[in-house]
Amino acid sequence: MAGLRQIAMQGRAVLGIVLSQFRTLWRVLGHTFTRADTVQYPEQKPALSPRYRGRIVLTRDPDGEERCVACNLCAVVCPVACIALQKAEDAHGRWYPEFFRINFSRCILCGLCEEACPTYAIQLTPDFEMAEYDRRNMVYEKEHLLIDGPGKYHDYNFYRVAGKSIGGKDKGEAEHEAPPIDIHSLLP
Amino acid sequence: MSVGSPLNIGLILGAVIATAAVLIWVERRLLAVWQDRLGPNRLGPLGLLQVAADMIKILSKEDWVPPFADKGVFVFAPTVIMVTMLTAFAVVPIAPDVGIIDFNFGLLYFLALSSLSVYSAVLAGYASNNKYSLYGALRASAQTLSYEVFMGLSVMGVVMLAGTFDLRVIVEAQQNLWYIVPQCLGFAVFFIAALAESHRTPFDLPEAEHELVAGFHTEYSGIKFGMFFVGEYIGITLSSAMMVTLFFGGWHGPLLPPVVWFVLKTAVFIMLFILIRGSLPRPRYDQLMAFGWKVMLPLALVNLMLTGALVLMVGSDA
Amino acid sequence: MLLTLFYTAAAVAVISTALVVTQLNAVHALLYLILSLIASAVVFYLMGAYFAALLEVIVYAGAVMVLFLFVVMLLNLGQRTIEQEQAWLQPGSWRGPAVLAGVLLTELLWVLATGSAAETGHVVSSKEVGIRLFGPYVLAVELASMLLLAGLVGAYHLARRGGRLR
Fold first, then answer.
1. Distance of alpha carbon B237 from alpha carbon B85, whole angstroms
2. Angle, vertex CA B136, rays to CA B132 and CA B137, nearest 5
């Protein structure tokens, strides 16, 4: 009796497997009438979202200053070590990269540098057409990377919200920043 | 046994080889359609000239024999599949007066040649002297040997109903009723066995690329690889033609001329082969063998028994 | 014409069988054995026994020899076995069997020369084979089927693991 029930259960399982094969075939056949997801590439461009991870750029503040503060976080986080930069400081106390170099023949467009960047300076753009005949042309210097706009974040200005004092903006003058506490005073 | 005219033979051979070549393009386009892609569409109308480009490429590649291979056998192996598959076409009755030979053991002849075609994979795997190729060859031999048994048993129902091994007589006997109706079980077994015999997905374990590189043809390139490739497509065409002949009434059909009906029905089955490649995953090897011996063999035997009982009940001349 | 074909096929069968014995590489020897089987199938065909010819190809060349090849490939014979084969093919070891085979061959030639060979010009149909198998030879068929059933049960018992459908 138990054997019979077992056979019946196995039979039902086998029937389910067989029917699922036919269901698969039918659903794949249904794709005869769906539109292709791919496009005729060089003539038709695919629609890429603004957050597509393509060629890397360095952006500027809304005021037109460089956003990059040369903190080196992007170079540290880069899994293929394709970013190289050197910190420098201008007369106002702003930090900036003296040089900024990305070797795109190594870059895997993973976007970790963009995630690590504290100032939204380094951003990935929806552009992937970076073919070169000479491999050395894949090494982009700062003048190739730096663009004139703010990229994806239009209003963000790091020095306006950060506590660091630079020329024309002292400590306590940033947005939402309280005046600094005089620790030598005994008053609360 | 009547022999077709040389023109007839030439036309059929040419048509078969041309079909096999065009199938390279057809398979790529159809898979693309079912996977929501575009597929090769640049070269010529609808990309049809892709066939020519593929041919030129494969013919102009270096014809390399690895130094560790068993040279004679290595060169001999790819010719086996081409020769067996092409000669097996000799017995396929295409239309009332089109065909190469009418052999009164045509069905057995087809089974014999399809059983010989396994040597192609086995010898290629042995001669390559490569462990992945050897695995592919072992799988090919075990798989083909097993599924050959069910293939032979599944068509015996048709033989009982028609009372002959002659394929032309079998088609003529389907004038009123296609054998798919009384032999649906036999057809299911035959179809699955044909898939396994031609090493097509989901039964392409001898060349399973994710585990065996390319299985028995890992070491092959150029024209020798091309022969395996085209041989597989001829095998698909042959299997489809046999299904049409045995179960779907061959050239019978209303309005259109017989040859057109035959070609149309064969094309449907070829497309079914490609659809199955596009949709079904590959089983594990032990599952494949267990499925064969535990499901297909009993099914084929039950079909044989039921058909025998039916024929006995209706009368021996049914 | 048919006679020429017959003798060609027979010659192919004999030569390839001789090559089976003399080949050093086991797989090459098996290839010649397959060729010999196919040649004898052609001989059957030319004698009008189409059914036997095709069964010879399906069963022997298509199935049994594949298993042989399978086993030989699994054994992974290398250079060592080739040397061993070379040692076995020294004149000392094949002289005895060759003399005995020569006796048989002369006997065969004698029978052929005296002209008592049967000439069958008629085509054997599958129905005839079936009637013979299940008529006069039914006992042999039943014995063979029992042997095969025993083999099947034995193989199933040996290959069984746990007893659950996996």
1. 9
2. 115
Phi, psi dihedral angles at B23 (to 5 degrees)? -60, -30
Cα of first residue to Cα of last residue in chain A, in angstroms, is 87
> Nearest-CA residue of chain B relative to C64?
B145
**pLDDT score of B142:** 83
Q: Contact A28/B33, CB-based, under 8 Å?
A: no
Assess: ipTM above 0.85.
Answer: no
Q: How far is B141 from chain C (nearest CA, A)?
A: 7
- Which residue(s) pair with B143 in the sheet? none
CA atoms within 13 A on the CB side of A74: 32
Decide if B33 touches A, using CB distance below 8 A.
yes
Q: Which chains touch A (3 or more CB pairs under 8 A)?
A: B
C-beta neighbour count of A146 within 10 angstroms: 18
- Measured distance between the N- and C-terminal CA atoms of chain B, rounded to whole angstroms: 24
HEC per residue, chain B: CCECCHHHHHHHHHHHHHHHHHHHHHHHHHHHHHCCCCCCCCCCHHHCCHHHHHHHHHHCCCCCCCCCCCHHHHHHHHHHHHHHHHHHHHHCCCECCECCECCCCHHHHHHHHHHHCHHHHHHHHHHHCCHHHHHHHHHHHHHHHHHHHHHHHHHHHHHHHHCCCCHHHHHHHCCCCCCCCCCHHHHHHHHHHHHHHCCCCCCCHHHCHHHHCCHHHCCCCHHHHHHHHHHHHHHHHHHHHHHHHHHCCCCCCCCCCHHHHHHHHHHHHHHHHHHHHHHCCCCCHHHHHHHHHHHHHHHHHHHHHHHHHHHHHHCCCC
Quote the pTM value: 0.77
Neighbour tally for B315: CB within 10 Å = 7
pLDDT at B6 over 90: no
C31 — contact with chain B (CB < 8 Å)?
yes
pLDDT tens digits, one per residue of C115-133: 554 555 567 777 788 888 8
Going by the DSSP 8-state scheme, the letter that residue A108 receives in this structure is -
The reply to whether residue A24 touches residue B35, judged by beta carbons under 8 angstroms, is no
Residue of B102, B130, B159, B165 to mutate, interface with C, max C Cβ within 10 Å? B165
Asked if the Cβ–Cβ distance from C73 to B138 is below 8 Å, we say: yes
CB–CB of B278 and A34 under 8 A?
no
Q: Which residue has the tokens 């010719």?
A: B79
The answer to whether A137 and A129 are in contact (CB under 8 A) is no
Question: Residue B253: phi, psi to the nearest 5?
Answer: 170, 155
Asked if the Cβ–Cβ distance from A36 to B37 is below 8 Å, we say yes
> Does any CB of chain B come closer than 8 Å to the CB of residue C152?
no
Summary mean pLDDT of chain B? 84
What pLDDT sits at residue C76?
A: 66
For residues A169 and A93, the answer to whether their CB atoms sit within 8 Å is: no
Q: What are the backbone angles phi and psi of residue A83, rounded to the nearest 5°?
A: -105, 135
Quick one: tokens of B103?
Answer: 């052999």
Average pLDDT for B19-25 = 86
Q: How many residues does chain B have?
A: 318
Q: CA A15, CA A35: separation in Å to the nearest integer?
A: 33
Distance CA C162, CA A70 (A): 66
> What 3-state class would DSSP assign to A121?
coil
**CA-wise closest residue to A78 among A51, A105, A116, A52:** A116
Amino acid at A129: E
pLDDT mean over A160-172: 81
Q: Does C129 touch chain B (CB under 8 A)?
A: no
- The token duo for B253 is 């059909």
Task: Parse chain B into domains and list their residue ranges.
Answer: 6-314
User: pLDDT tens digits, residue range C103-115?
Assistant: 877 877 776 666 5
User: Hey, how many other C-beta atoms are within 10 angstroms of the C-beta on A65?
Assistant: 15
